[in-house]
Amino acid sequence: MSSFFLMLPFEFIYRILDHLDDEALIFSARNVCKRLNLILDTYYPYQVIRNIMIDSLFSDDESQILDALSEYQRIINQRLHAESRQLDIQIITLDVVSRLVQLLTSENDKFQKKALRILLNVTGGSSKQTKYVVDAGTVPILIQLMQSPNEITQEDAIWMLSNIAGDNKNYRDFVLDHGILEPLLNVLSDDTCTLTMLEVATWCLSNLCRFDSPSVDFPKIPSIIPILSRLLQNNTDTRILRGVCYIIRKLIQQSNKLISTVIENSVIPRLVTLLEHTVEVIRLSALTVIKEILGGNDQEKQMVLDDDGFLPHLSMLFDVDRTQINENLCDVIVNITAGTESQIQAVIDADIFPRMIQFLYLDADKIKERVACTIRNSTRFSSTQTEYFVGQGAIPLLFDLLRSSETKIIEIVLEGLQNILGWGVAESKQMQNSNPYTMLIKELNELDKVEELRSHRDNEVAARARHIIETYFDIR
């Protein structure tokens, strides 16, 4: 048994032995010692550090305070690299956190830096520990420290505020209400900022945009977009690029009125170039922003399509081995084809649809829905465009998608069939011939699928199915 164990107080040894079951004690002295040493390695240091914190952290002696901070920091760092953090709560208590927060305002620079770093690690832990920090009145102090002349202090303060804001919606709003935005934007606008500082500040702003409900005040957003545009243009760091794309996407999701502001700040050309980035997560990040922009009005869609590199870059992204990119690619195509006839024609000219339908073999409902949407959207305006999609196998595709159990997909498919059959009527009148598309459907022997849908549980689906059967096939 180690001398370290023998040096322990007898009462402490007794308490440990008392918690061992009889079988373990009988098994072998060696196993008992191993068990005790395991307990000592994890439990005893925390009892010691608690005593140090109580006796020294609250002391008036500066050397004792500094020793306590150093030991506390060592233990916290040790636990950060451990598999289990279950003992952290024994040393992270509200009274200790309150004392650390008090030291943030100390004139002693060492106290401030060490206390700040310890609290930073605390906010990277559980929500309960983060609550201790917030309840101790840390946020206003951190806002002040964001303007510290010391770069490390400034960076740690921003990082800690980011941890707090990212914990939950209420804390995010609490941090915003205390005025974080202006000093944070000042940091992001500073050309002398280090790369690490920019990474931390970008991550902080992204956490301020998290959660579904509105976050950043809309009157302040016009001043944010130019800063984000500069960060996007002037950086190659993947963390910054990914963070900026995330922020822009979240802001647009809060209000598509921001799309015009994003476009005016020349964001699109940079996003298009990022579609060919060597790092996949950056390509995906840029694509998701473009998807949101293409969800705007027809004029805003056109601003993206007017970039000569956009559709070629988009076409290059089609890869059946990247599910997330594939789904977002399909979203982009759906958004474009929801626009004007000329915008649909741009998709046709880029020969994108044949590559899009490759994704159907993945048998994913999201992909099926997007393919159905693209066909429905693209058969709204002209017989020529409809003929193109029929030539690409649109009708067999739609009937295959009718096998879906998803009501939404079935409804979209029926809308697409209505569009196609409607153009077939117009063509038959012009050519004084039969509707070519009804003939094609009959040849496929698939009409029974539509007939069955007349009794579908969804009234809208049943009504569309009856309309198709009665109007185009004269079946009552």
TrEMBL record:
GO terms for biological process: protein import into nucleus. ARM repeats lie at residues 95-137, 137-179, 179-208. Residues 2-52 form the F-box domain. InterPro entries: ARM-like (IPR011989), ARM-type_fold (IPR016024), Arm_3 (IPR032413), Armadillo (IPR000225), ELMO_ARM (IPR024574), F-box_dom (IPR001810), Importin_alpha (IPR024931). The keyword Transferase does not apply. GO terms for molecular function: nuclear import signal receptor activity. Gene3D superfamilies: Leucine-rich Repeat Variant. It comes from the Eukaryota. Keywords: Protein transport, Repeat, Transport. Pfam families: Arm, Arm_3, ELMO_ARM. Belongs to the importin alpha family. This is Importin subunit alpha.
